[in-house]
Amino acid sequence: RHFLARINEHNPTVNAYITVMEEQAIAQAKAADARRANGKASVLDGIPLAHKDIFCTEGVRTSCASKMLDNFIAPYNATIVEKIATAGMVTLGKTNMDEFAMGSSNETSWYGPVRNPWNTDCVPGGSSGGSAAAVAAGLAPASTGTDTGGSIRQPAALCNLTGLKPTYGLVSRYGMIAFASSLDQAGPMTRTAEDSALLLQAMAGFDEKDSTSLKRDIPDYNATLNDSLEGKVIGVPKEFFAEGLSDEIATKVRDALAEFEKQGATLKEISLPHSHLSIPCYYVIAPAEASTNLSRYDGVRYGHRCENPQDLADLYTRTREEGFGDEVKRRILVGTYALSAGFYDAYYRKAQRIRRLIKQDFIEAFKEVDIIAGPTSPNPAFGIGEKVNDPLTMYLEDMYTIAVNLAGIPGLSIPAGLVDGKPVGLQLIGKDFCEAELLNAAHRFQ
Ligand code: GLN
C-alpha cells in the first residue's frame, strides 16, 4: 500500500508506469502475509517489484510501449514473471519503456516520455527508463529490465541505480517480447548490489522453453558479496576514456577506480581495439533481427488492426503504418535493407565477422584481467527533447555498453557519484557467467 500510494502521488509526473496492478498487488501481498504468518516466507516473499512492459503478464496488458500492442492482453506469463511470482514477490505494475525497447531516452514510448526523478527536465535513459525511474523515485523497491545494447545499464547510470545485464543465456527470454534475439537479456534493476544478487537469484536458470537458455549450476550470488578484492586485476580500456567522454564523467570514474585500488585491486590499462566498431556493427545486427522479429505484427493474430482493410496488402500496410512509431519504422527499414538480396554479404555477414572480433578483444583482455571497468555512458542525463530528433547522437549514448551485448558477457552499472546533481554510472564487465564476481566488486564498492 505504501508503494501504491506513492505511485498514485508521483506517477502522473514521472510517468514510470504504463499499467498499475493495484488489485492483483494487494491480493498477492495478502497471500504473502499469510505465508509469513505461517513461518513459510522465503527471502523475497512479499517484496514488491515492477516489471518492464516487455514481459508477458497473464491477463494484463503487455504493450511494449507501442500503439501496436496497446490492446494486447498477454495469455501467459514470461518465465521470469513466473519465477519471480514463485519467489513470492508482489507485482505492482508494468513500466514504461522505449517502443519495442528501441531507444536510449524513453522518448519513443507511445505512452509519452518518462521523467528522471533526479531532474524532471531530463530523460531517465532507456529503454528501461520506466523501470529505472520507478525505483529511483521510490515507486518500487526493485524492477526488471531488458538490455539489448545498454537498456538496463544506461538508465541505471542516469538514475543512480545498480543495473545488471547477465550473460546471454543465463536468464530465460521466454515471454519477453523479442527485439534482437541474439542480444536481448533480462536483468534486475535495484538500488544495491545486494538487492541485485537476490533478484538475479530468482530470475536465473535453465528454461526448456528458451532454446538459447543454458544449462548450468547457478551459484549463490549473495554468498560471495563480501569477498576481498585483494589481488584482483581490473582492466581499464584506453578506448573508453577517449573522444566522446565528458570530462566530469571521466573524473568520477577515475575516482571510483582509485577506490578499488584502496581495496587491494590493481589497475591495468588494456586495449579493446575494435571498440569503435561496436556501434556500426550493432546498428546492422540489431535492426536486421528486429525487422524479422517485428514482421509478426501484421494486424491478423494480435495487436492493432487498421479499420476496413480493402485487401491483405492494405491490411498489412496501414496496420503497420498506424501501429509503429518513427524509430521502430527506421529500424525495420535499416534491417530489411541490410538483409536484402545482394546486400547481405556487404552488411549482415560483415557485421557478424566484426562481432567475432569484438568478442575476441574481450577474450584476449580477460587473459590478463579479472574485471574490466569504465564509464557506463558518455554523458549524464540529458534534457527531454534534446536528442530525440538526432538518432546518430542518440545511438552514441551506448558507445560503452553495446560491445558487451555483442560479446554476450555480463555487465553491471553501479552509482559512482553525482555531477551537478546528476548521477554517474561506473560499468563493470566480466567474463561469461562471472555475475557473482561483478556483484562482489560492486558490493565492496558500495
Ligand atoms: N539504445 C539501444 C537501441 O536503441 C539499446 C536498446 C536496448 O538495449 N534495448 O537499440
From TrEMBL:
Domain of life of the organism encoding this protein: Bacteria
Function: Allows the formation of correctly charged Gln-tRNA(Gln) through the transamidation of misacylated Glu-tRNA(Gln) in organisms which lack glutaminyl-tRNA synthetase. The reaction takes place in the presence of glutamine and ATP through an activated gamma-phospho-Glu-tRNA(Gln).
InterPro entries: Amidase, Amidase_CS, Amidase_dom, AS_sf, GatA
Positions of the Amidase domain: 1-439
Keyword tags: ATP-binding, Ligase, Nucleotide-binding, Protein biosynthesis, Transferase
EC number, as in UniProt: 6.3.5.7
Family: Belongs to the amidase family. GatA subfamily.
GO biological process terms on file: translation
HAMAP family: GatA
The reaction(s) this protein catalyses: L-glutamyl-tRNA(Gln) + L-glutamine + ATP + H2O = L-glutaminyl-tRNA(Gln) + L-glutamate + ADP + phosphate + H(+)
GO molecular function terms noted in the UniProt entry: ATP binding; glutaminyl-tRNA synthase (glutamine-hydrolyzing) activity; transferase activity
Gene of this entry: gatA
Pfam short name (any one): Amidase
Enzyme class, first EC level, given as a word: ligase
One GO location term (cellular component): glutamyl-tRNA(Gln) amidotransferase complex
Residues of the active site: 52, 127, 151
Subunit note: Heterotrimer of A, B and C subunits.
Protein name: Glutamyl-tRNA(Gln) amidotransferase subunit A
